[in-house]
């Protein structure tokens, strides 16, 4: 594994553990795709550090379990805000 990939994997890992960000949020912060973040965390991180991989997987599973709630909140907020173009 190339050094820049190893560094990116560890940087993203530390970011997710500190902020509890979702894959999508981490991808936006680091300027990579969701697929890259997911592959880094699920496939590459266990090769580098199994202990960190276990911790990150726990955060990602928690985010996955909560995503239906986040989606519902976003929809509720969308329809609760008054529209500016209604006249």
Automatic annotation (TrEMBL):
Q: According to the UniProt entry, where is the signal peptide?
A: none
Bias category Basic and acidic residues: which stretches?
67-76
The molecular function GO annotations come to: DNA binding; DNA-binding transcription factor activity
InterPro entries recorded for this chain? Spore_III_D (IPR014208), Tscrpt_reg_HTH_DeoR_CS (IPR018356)
The record's section on PROSITE patterns has:
HTH_DEOR_1
* Keywords in alphabetical order: DNA-binding, Transcription, Transcription regulation
UniProt region (Disordered), positions on chain: 67-87
Q: Which Pfam families match?
A: SpoIIID
* Entry protein name: Putative DeoR family transcriptional regulator, stage III sporulation protein D
**Upper classification of the organism:** Bacteria, Bacillati, Bacillota, Negativicutes, Selenomonadales
